[in-house]
Structure to design on (432 residues):
């Protein structure tokens, strides 16, 4: 059984993720991403974009601002509803999410039962723009990317030649002042979302809801997630967000249990109606056929880049024993692997011709790594741990027979191939 601690240790050891400002003791629920983390995130975003466009190409992209005015967040219902129940222990002064603890029992930290009343804690980060601080200058860091899409709906429709049904997609940062950030990248205070808002008529809403649930499930198969660890879960009425009439979560079985990975929600006409009411601007569309105007219905698919990053690490993390030796290997699908292939000269004396091969492979436009330091066994172990699907080893025979050894990450099997076929070999691996 793999534990979250093992996955956190690997992510830190191999430079995928660092604690933000670790030098100063870190910042709870906030992380920096190192070289391999950046590459993995890029692959996640690219796969998401590709997947939604493959489902329906009638999708436009947006990159909205992180800051939004008070009026916008009031219209969206976030200033009133976007909060979690908070409780304090008056003895040890610790704060908890009230739904995480049993208030009939004593505090798990100090052992005393001295709870305050439960009150609502606003999860949005508030700030002021400029030198004057009043309601007109209050701004919030967005807690979801979706609202930038709704407030730009008219701009986007009028500057692009689109007709309903169509989607607006966005990848970007979101911020929530979570009371208890936890489980590494699962619940963070600064994170990134990939959201698709799909606009259609109310008659089409159920059909598109089902289509997007199926498409999103298919996405997880395509990026190599073991579907035995995925399940769908419908929200009960009491669990629905203030904007949703129907939500299906795609859950993943993390080491700490089944939890939401992605939410697909029927937001109805809630957001456009609210923004229209509060701004006084008409956000309806005109149907030429019926000569009537109506407010579009919205189906939303929303997943966190970081939560999916953690899912991929959890799913790929494997410990096995090969030839009597224990190893840790990240069995990421080649498409998601940060590095697609490594070129390893057997010794530093062979660096020059091996580097020529590396230079040739980088022309493919995918990430290739060159590593010449340490024993070959150690270098294989490192590539296994970062999920590199294949290693090419250039040895003392390579010059004479124009061949190299290819080692497969998962089986550790090695075969001899002609150097001239190395490019083709990498391309073939990426089709897996
Ligand atoms: N626009 C809808 C929305 O924001 P949500 O269920 O609150 O819905 C959507 O968030 C997705 O964003 C979640 O399924 C999760 O993948 C990710 N997410 C939400 N809060 C997060 C947090 N604190 N840390 C990391 N990811 C988070």
């Amino acid at each position: 059984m793999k534990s979250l601690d093992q996955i956190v240790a690997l992510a830190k050891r191999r430079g995928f993720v660092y604690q933000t400002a670790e030098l100063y003791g870190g910042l709870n629920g906030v992380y920096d991403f190192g070289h391999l983390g950046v590459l993995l995130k890029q692959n996640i975003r690219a796969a998401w974009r590709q997947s939604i466009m493959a489902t329906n190409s009638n999708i436009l992209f947006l990159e909205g601002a992180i800051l939004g005015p008070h009026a916008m967040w009031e219209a969206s219902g976030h200033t009133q509803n976007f909060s979690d129940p908070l409780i304090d222990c008056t003895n040890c002064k610790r704060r908890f999410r009230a739904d995480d603890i049993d208030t009939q029992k004593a505090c798990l930290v100090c052992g005393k039962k001295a709870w305050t009343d439960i009150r609502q804690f606003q999860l949005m980060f508030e700030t002021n723009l400029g030198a004057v601080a009043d309601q007109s200058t209050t701004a919030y860091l967005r807690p979801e990317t979706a609202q930038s899409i709704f407030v730009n709906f008219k701009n986007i429709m009028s500057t692009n030649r689109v007709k309903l049904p169509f989607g607006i997609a966005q990848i970007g940062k979101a911020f929530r002042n979570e009371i208890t950030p936890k489980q590494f990248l699962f619940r963070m205070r600064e994170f990134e979302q990939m959201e698709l808002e799909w606009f259609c008529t109310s008659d089409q809403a159920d059909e598109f809801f089902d289509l997007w649930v199926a498409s999103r499930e298919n996405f997880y198969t395509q990026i190599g997630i073991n579907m035995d660890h995925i399940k769908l879960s419908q929200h009960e009425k009491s669990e629905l967000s203030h904007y949703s009439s129907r939500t299906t979560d795609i859950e993943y079985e993390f080491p700490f249990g089944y939890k939401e990975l992605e939410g697909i929600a029927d937001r109805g006409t809630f957001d456009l109606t609210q923004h229209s009411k509060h701004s006084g601007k008409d956000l309806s569309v005109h149907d030429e056929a019926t000569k009537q105007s109506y407010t579009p219905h919205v189906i939303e698919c929303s997943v966190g880049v970081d939560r999916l990053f953690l899912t991929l690490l959890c799913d790929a993390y494997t410990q096995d024993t090969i030839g009597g030796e224990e190893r840790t290997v990240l069995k990421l699908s080649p498409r998601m692997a940060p590095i697609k292939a490594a070129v390893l000269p057997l010794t530093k004396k062979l660096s020059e011709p091996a580097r020529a091969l590396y230079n040739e492979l980088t022309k493919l436009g995918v990430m290739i790594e060159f590593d010449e330091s340490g024993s070959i066994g150690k270098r294989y172990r490192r590539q296994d741990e970062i999920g590199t699907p294949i290693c090419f080893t250039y040895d003392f025979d390579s010059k004479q027979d124009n061949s190299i050894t290819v080692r497969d990450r998962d089986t550790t099997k090695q075969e001899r191939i002609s150097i001239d076929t190395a490019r083709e070999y990498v391309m073939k691996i990426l089709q897996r």
